[in-house]
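User: For my dataset I need records formatted as: sequence, then structure tokens, nothing else. Please produce one.
Assistant:
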Amino acid sequence: MLKVTVKFLLIYLSFNVLIPKIVSAYSNHGENGSINGLVFEDKVYNAKIKTVNLYVNSGKRNSRLEPAVINIRSPHHLLLEFDELYEDARYFQAKIFHCNWDWTPSELKPIEYLPTYNEYEVFEYEYSFNTKIPYTHYIFQVPPVLIPGNYLLVLYSKDNEEDLVLSRRFMVFDQQIAIAHSVEKSAGIQQIRTHQQIDFIINYRGLEIFNPEFDIKVVIRQNQSWVTSISNLKPSEIREIDKTLEFRHFNLENNFYGGNEFRFFELNSVRAPGRNVDRVFIQDDKIDAFLFQDKARGSEFYSIWDDLNGGYVIINIDGRDPAIESEYASTHFFLKSAEKIPSDIYIFGKLSDYKLLPDYKMKYDPALGGYFGNLLLKQGWYDYIYYTPDMMYAIEGSHFETRNEYEIFVYYKPQGRITEFLAGYSYFSNQR
């Protein structure tokens, strides 16, 4: 009788305790499959976390400037780098969430898109060396996934998922379709001097698509910014015989503001001001860098110069290793303006995660006659613009000649599947 009771108890524990734990380990959790407080976008949750960059570690010179998009068959890996303004190292953990084409959490379980348990340790780090503000530099190689699509990488404090650190979007594609594209002047009469039009053709011969108008989703992104991205474009023409979808719209839904070339400054050294840096003050415990005064460019003619399309590169010519020897400097921006304009103004670019963040919002001072802002930035070369959401490019101006980078993402949902796959990707620019 005792043996029977023990056997029954073991069976009960297996089905009611052990199996649920195993299933939970391979399942998303929380509301909508996420951690409490998590948003499915690029975000820093801890003010001490700085200089976050997720990129394909291809070994190319400018790989840190490229988007976090990788071919599922690539021999390379995505690499995450970031700093924490703290003297001692902490241990972080990471999870990966699969997302639908519109960045809502999908219903897939981790066991369906990951080859291993969905919990990874972030243990590679280095301490800063001889810097005014001490920090720890972290490196994490993102593990491979099993299927193409949208993903969110989430870091949190070890053994405490509620203590979120950062989240980063990345995309994995499997090139099963062909995309032919071009950047043209806008078809709109009023927009012809200020906008760029993205025309493209999708050839889906490699896929069995029964209803391409609804089974395919398209997203276009300019300069890696989700703020201005265009989503869910419908084809202007479907040719089932050729298996092609044309996107040549004349109602401007495939138009982007051309914008202007990004402003930039060069803080490669704290001993000698670089380009567009007026002066640098070094104190015992901090460094202040003051940029030259900026002015509005909205009424100026287009001028061409090389930029990073909003990106930044960490550079330090004073030391050997920019990752751990670069200083953090309070960087002071000033935009001259005789009066306050009827729109908020943000410092915008990769330095702000291409988002309109409260700390990046400029403040107006009538006594100074302009807007000022202050950001703690690591030494390097930075691109930025002054973004006005209510007046678009009133400060910067917008020109069809401006050189921009574009990406086209094509998502396909096969019959019987619960989520889309990233079946096509194209990365290009109108640089001449």
